[in-house]
Amino acid sequence: MDKNLEISVVIPAYNEERRIEKTIHIIHDYLKNQGYHFEIIVVDDGSTDSTANLMLIILKKLGNIRLISHKKNMGKGAAVRSGVLASTGDITLFTDADLSTPIVELEKMKIYLQNGYDIVIGSRKKKESSIPVPQPWHRRFSGWVFQFLVRKILGLPFSDTQCGFKLFKTDVARSLFLNMKHRGFTFDVEILYNALKNGYKVKETGVVWMNSKNTTVRFFRDSIYMFLDLLKIRFKR
User: What DSSP element (H or E) covers 81?
Assistant: First the structure.
């Protein structure tokens, strides 16, 4: 373990052969050029394409890269959990493999950790947010309904819990993800719900975000499961 490691970047990946290499190079080059002591942890969540093979090639080319492999697909939450629990940096960022939020947004978020916050979450709904490429209307509507339910069922004060760009103090992240129950897309909500219950300070800030056409979220099926998960989080089932 590098005791001087500043940041761990966790990337959950499921069937990401078309973009994982580009994403890793962008993040790696940015962090290196900024002078960070860093590691990038890619969690291959049981991919059935060439993601794992590509990662083995990348590992030989670049330093500071680690690969965690799930034998079967366990869900985005499970993938992020594996990466977070393996993190060794002082702070941990998790970001989606499509890099919908540019890695440069890390800088504005890091300032809040330095000013006493424990968690900083990127948001597509804040006044300072910028969305050059928006989602289709049905996904925007689905997201609005989901956030409405999050506020009503769980009382969370955030406008966007699902943006896949979140920064943690690593010890805080480990404590929350260690006891996480939900492996699917509602893991963000569970983590934030438990963070507030445990007295951690959470800052929501607007970021740049661009929609990806190759999303793995399935609109109707995942919306139903996410609603049921909210009830389970609220009543701890």
Answer: helix 76-86
Give the relative orientation of helices 76-86 and 187-197 as an angle to the nearest 10 degrees: 50
User: What is the token pair recorded at 161?
Assistant: 């819990």
Residue 94 — φ and ψ, nearest 5°?
-115, 140
Burial of 107 (0-12, 13-18, 19+ CB in 10 A): exposed
Between β-strands 208-210 and 7-13, what pairing exists: parallel, antiparallel or unpaired? Answer: unpaired
pLDDT digits (tens, 9 = 90+) for 227-236: 788 888 888 7
Phi and psi, residue 53, nearest 5°: -65, -40
Smallest CA-to-CA distance from 100 within 159, 26, 204 is with: 26
Q: Could you report the per-residue pLDDT of 111-133, keeping only the tens digit for each?
A: 999 999 999 999 999 989 998 77
Question: pTM, whole model, 2 decimals?
Answer: 0.89
The CA-based angle 35-99-66, given to 5 degrees, is: 60
